[in-house]
Design goal:
- This protein has one helix at residues 62-75; strands at 19-24, 30-34, 44-47.
- By secondary structure, it is of the alpha+beta class.
- β1 (19-24) and β2 form a beta hairpin.
- Bound molecules: zinc ion (ZN).
């Protein structure tokens, strides 16, 4: 089985102004990491597929938010409904 990332079957939504990273999920949706970036502690992630989001903490440095967002993208099988 190929592990190559394939393009999403869904249209990529508009990119918010403060978007730092967008991960494609296993289900073909997207997890957005937004905030002010590497040297700020106000970054967060939210999943456009299932609606889950970062918490505990809700906002933190990119170094902490990034791996959580990537892990969620790998696990999430929800498809975008909008
Ligand atoms: Zn999700």
């Amino acid at each position: 089985m190929s592990t190559a990332v394939r393009p999403s079957a869904f249209t990529e939504p508009d990119r918010p102004k403060n978007l730092q990273i967008r991960f494609m999920t296993t289900g073909g949706s997207f997890v957005d990491v937004t905030g002010h970036g590497e040297h700020f502690d106000n970054n967060s992630w939210n999943c456009l597929g299932c609606g889950d989001a970062s918490r505990s903490p809700e906002r933190d440095g990119l170094w902490r938010i990034r791996p959580d967002a990537n892990t969620h993208a790998t696990a999430c099988r929800a498809i975008p409904l909008k």
